[in-house]
């Protein structure tokens, strides 16, 4: 679909589209985030010139063309993907080099596709947030992905704001110089864990075919298994769907894919809501990244960032 608008006064590009597009479209549902996505995606032209900056000044008399497939644009790629925009309340720490955000559940960290359709993600949302704070930038601000959380996991996640710190942050993760604390609800068929504290160490790797959902499990080192270690502490009990679950704190010593989920499942206490690894049904994956501690890669200051857990 192609829409052509004419500006009658000097105005910001995003403001013009926000006012005029709903009247042109049969859908009419143009949120601020959707307007920004249209512009950043390169779907908007001013006097024939592609503009990717929401704050771009449009002068009176200028012709603005918006070209996109409306049906695909308004199609939600995954029914339970939430709509999310980073706001000040979601930012747990920020300086010139780093930004740490409280990620919600049901929102992927990085770009993925459903068929040919790109799903919204936290990385893009962080870039939109940084750009909204400095709208005069001609190009999107930088946000570097240094680690990941599963789509259904909530809590603390770190992005870099300058490429110059990427190597140092990468080394910190590789050398396990971060303290990573998670909160979990888990349920075992034979009751709660017998020990208040227990540690799981194993070599794990992907055990599912590439054509199937990614599932990790114990895998010998000579078959590609990676060393993993998690320390668990049972700190209480919670009732969930009529079942008594263990409220567990997990401290990661390594950061393998699905590590906590695999370790608890193989110990007989899968995470609640984790159907892939045998967990009981729940409204969400009951796994939350609660705390991240580290020494700042530039200043050396000790940083401790905390995101409260909603289900604990």
From TrEMBL:
BP term (GO), one: enzyme-directed rRNA pseudouridine synthesis
Record keywords: Isomerase, RNA-binding
Annotated ranges, domain RNA-binding S4: 11-79
Domain of life: Bacteria
InterPro entries: PsdUridine_synth_cat_dom_sf (IPR020103), PsdUridine_synth_RsuA/RluA (IPR006145), RluA_PseudoU_synthase (IPR050188), S4_RNA-bd (IPR002942), S4_RNA-bd_sf (IPR036986)
Sequence similarity: Belongs to the pseudouridine synthase RluA family.
Protein name: 23S rRNA pseudouridine1911/1915/1917 synthase
Organism annotation: Treponema porcinum
